[in-house]
Write a structure and sequence with these properties.
Blueprint lengths: L1 E3 L5 E7 L5 E7 L10 E6 L5 E7 L2 E9 L5 E7 L2 E9 L5 E7 L2 E10 L4 E8 L2 E9 L5 E7 L2 E9 L5 E7 L2 E2 L1 E6 L5 E7 L2 E13 L5 E11 L2 E6 L5 H12 L8 H9 L2 E2 L8 H13 L6 H72 L5 H13 L3 H8 L6 H13 L6 H8 L2 H4 L6 H4 L5 H7 L4 E3 L4 E3 L17 H5 L18 H13 L1 H5 L9 H22 L1 H71 L2 H8 L6 E2 L4
Helix pairs in contact: 3-17, 4-16, 5-15, 6-8, 7-8, 7-13, 7-15, 13-15
Amino acid sequence: LNGRGINPMQHMGVWKSVDGTDYEGSMVDNHFDKLDMNGEYHITWRNGEEFEGKCIDGKRHGYGKFRFHDGSIYRGDWFQDKRQGTGELKSPDGSFYTGEWDNDQIHGEGFFFWAKDKSSYTGETIRGVRSGRGVYKDTSGNIYDGCFRNSQMDGKGIFSYVNGDKYEGPFRENKREGRALFTKKNGEVHIGEWKNDIRDGIFIIKRENINNGGAVEKEVLVSRWKEGKCIAWEESLVDPKITARFYERWANGEEKLNSTYAADVARKLPFLPRGVDGSQPFIQRILRQIAQKNIEAICADTYRETKETLSVKSKEVATSRAACLQLERKIVKLCSVMTKHNESLNVIQNCCDEINLQIQDVTRSIAIFWEGDGSRARQAFAVACEELKKINAKDWFKLRRYHEPPQFIAKLLSAVCNIMQVDDSWEMSKILLGSSKNNRDKGDEDSIWQQYDVKLLFLLYGKHLRKDTKNNSLCDQPSQGQESIFEGVGKSQDQRSGTNSGPLPTEYDLSCIIEKQAVLLKVSAFFHDPITRNHGYIINTFGHACLALVAFVKASGNYIKKVCSIEAKNIELTELENLVKHKCSVLDDAKRVFDSFVAREEDLTKELQVAINRRDTKTEEEEKLDCTMTKCLRLMTSDIRQMACLSINSDDLICDSMV
């Protein structure tokens, strides 16, 4: 306890606890007790977190500053060790929140700022999640003012785009959804339905146009949208002012029934000038009078134009229907091919499963054989290989130093060469016993790209044994990026199939020797040779390397005998593994083909959907043209006497923006 006395009962100091926490502040009764912490304190925890502020009864209570281990800092109110009230949390990257807290969570009104994208949020938050009313400004400057739920725009709101456009309406999970009002920068208003953030349905468009006289006219149009694209313009909406003005022109005598304008109106029937309401009786009366004075001109332009357009549209409809039919046939044919191909995949898969079961049975038989081997030939071979690693360079040199080796050494190394499946010669024997440095001048390719102390050990252990260039010793760890030329070759059937029937740490396995009987005869000849039997007493004179090699040859011979007795099972296992490998390769190729079929089907389905939409749109346009033709024919074939009172009615009239 280090401190400066203030009074006999209370003083300031620093208390260092055994758990690494430091308390600096007021001490009570000359003895520190965490439960009696009352007043201003500075607390530092072992993980680097710090608190500086007011404490009551050992808990942070009141205003205080807390630094988290990640560098974030909270400044604000505390209540019984929890953030509650008003406070600010600032991250190391510059992001921060300022506002209300409750029960150690952000809760209530507040302001968020994210430094990474410069976005911000002002509004309500419930238990750390933006919910309720709020204003969000994104990195581009767009502003949303409305309802939030689960930190997403959800409910009614106004989205103001940085380009001046504005959307007013409902949102669902950050997407525009429902009937809304969309106002463009130029004042044009679109009212209609939005689905999944795109327009879909009927939209009423209100805009202003400047007529030939330079006056501003308000225009109301109707458009049809599908999947975010305008597919058709509907008839114009009526305008009472335009309707009244149209009637006044004839009623006041401004226009004559036989004037050029009257003839133009007659030729365009059943379409009416933009904004004129044909359902009004006084408008129908004017139109009947125009028709009586311009009988030859009735529907002339409309009929001719509609007939020409209908002829072209009918061909387009036929073409679109043919395209849909062709795509449907392609999909049906492709699905049939995919069904057959899938059946083939199942057959191949079942075949692979059956072969794998056979492999498991054969592997189990081999494992049982080796586990029941009383002579422990595999383990003995592994031990003999390990003994070779213990021989030092001096003993290896004693064997390879001869220009013309003694007969015993020559026969011993000949047996070793046959076991290692290399050229049976004294030069090769000296290479087997030499290092990479010794063998570079003797034509050994391995010595060019690998460093080793003894070539024999390099062949036995492959990448699991390398030369440590620092201390010139053998290490059991592979060098980084170094691979053995024997990787995957020389592993026993047990090793490849994952059985554990005894230690076999070497890369080189005698079970992979092709001419096992020939090697076995060579080994047997060595041990039965009179020279070998008669020189048993002088083997020690050749050093430890000679003894280790004799043990290696003997263990190899016993191991080969055991391998020969189970050769049939090994061959069967190899054949099964090669077969399942081939089948799996065929299966992978078939799966890739099937995946291409699936991708092709998806593409065709998308093309078909586009073609269907195009066909439906063309068909709808054709039906409208056909309806217009029917109305034209009805008006053109009506008797003049009937026309005066019956022919022209609201069902035959169309408010059109073309006039």
